[in-house]
Write a structure and sequence with these properties.
Blueprint lengths: L1 H11 L4 E6 L11 E8 L2 H14 L3 E4 L5 E3 L4 E8 L4 E5 L2 E5 L4 H10 L2 E2 L11 H7 L2 E2 L2 E2 L4 E7 L5 E5 L12 H4 L2 E8 L1 E2 L2 H18 L5 E2 L22 H7 L6 E2 L2 E3 L7 E3 L5 H19 L8 E3 L4
Parallel strand pairs: 2-5, 3-5, 4-19
Antiparallel strand pairs: 1-2, 6-7, 7-13, 8-14, 9-10, 11-12, 11-13, 15-18, 16-17, 17-18
Length: about 300
């Protein structure tokens, strides 16, 4: 363990490596226990070094981006947690930009809008990072972020780098091949086109305003908890929209609580931490929503959030 810590600090710097580091402040839910090691990574080279150290020491490695869309166990996460945040955006050619995995989607939108590059402005207000958006194929108003992606640079847990075109990423609703392969995003290439900055800002402002009207952005949450029903396999009763939030609402659970976790009264597909909630509280509320929707409507809700760490 001492050797692993020494190697991590030598590779990434003592200021970027912490033992028994609390993860709750790094998540949008503000819950969860500590990581055995937390390593802050900004660029691909440091990520590659950390993966190599974990592989050599046979220590599990978990990637954390912007901290949205995840529920960290109260017991924390064993092994190395790599927090990929920050990095650079650069223009590759007239129609392509490249963002490091840790760049926030909001930062990416600002970068493109300020340079008159169209294509990502409607994603303003999206929580998390470019890497996280790839992992879960972020969606908004019926669009998938994979529609904007050209290719993704990935690192395997064996340290092998490869550039993977969009067609080979297995993108689907809330899904990418990373769920299966456990590869790690290093950078993402997005398609762009010339645009008028003022017009792009107007689109970005409207997207952000829509989110503020319809989502509890002022509260600690992880984003949507459940995937929306799939019309090809889920039989939702007539009169109920194909919406997980609508099902939870119609089940009478809007405002329901477990401890300090509560189903949002703004949007029933969000659970909010009203202060002092635990991962156990949130888990209990998730399970309650699933059980009630199944019992009342015969629909099995599938979770969109990712659970990290030891089970409680």
């Amino acid at each position: 363990m001492i050797d692993t810590h020494a190697r991590l600090t030598a590779a990434c710097g003592a200021d970027r490596v912490r033992r028994n580091a609390p993860l709750a402040p790094l998540t949008t839910f503000k819950v969860g226990g500590p990581a055995d090691w937390l390593v802050d990574v900004h660029h691909g080279a440091d990520l590659e070094k950390t993966i190599a150290i974990a592989r050599d020491a046979r220590i599990p490695i978990t990637v954390l981006g912007g901290g949205s869309n995840v529920l960290v166990s109260d017991r924390g996460v064993r092994g190395i947690v790599v927090r990929v945040h920050g990095g650079d955006v650069r223009q590759i050619d007239a129609s392509t930009i490249r963002a490091d995995a840790g760049v926030t989607i909001n930062g990416l939108v600002r970068w493109t809008v300020n340079r008159g590059l169209a294509g990502l402005e409607a994603w303003a207000g999206t929580p998390g990072t470019a890497g996280g958006a790839v992992y879960g194929n972020a969606h908004f108003k019926g669009r998938l972020i994979s529609e904007c992606i050209v290719a993704v640079r990935l690192a395997t847990l064996d340290g092998i780098l490869q550039d993977v075109p969009r067609a080979e990423m297995e993108f689907a609703y809330d899904y990418s091949r990373l769920h299966r392969t456990h590869e790690v995003v290093v950078s993402v290439d997005f398609s762009v086109a010339a645009g008028e900055p003022s017009a792009l800002r107007a689109v970005a402002r409207e997207s952000l305003a829509f989110r503020k009207r319809t989502q509890p952005l002022e509260s600690a949450s992880a984003g949507c908890i459940f995937q929306n029903p799939d019309p090809s396999r889920d039989r939702v009763p007539d009169g109920i929209p194909l919406s997980a939030g609508a099902l939870v609402d119609r089940a009478g659970l809007k405002g329901a609580r477990e401890g300090s976790a509560r189903v949002s009264t703004t949007h029933a597909n969000f659970i909010v931490n009203e202060g002092g909630a635990t991962a156990r509280d949130i888990r209990a509320l998730i399970d309650r929503c699933k059980a009630e929707v199944q019992a009342q409507f015969g629909v099995a809700l599938r979770e969109e959030i990712v659970c990290l760490g030891e089970g409680d």
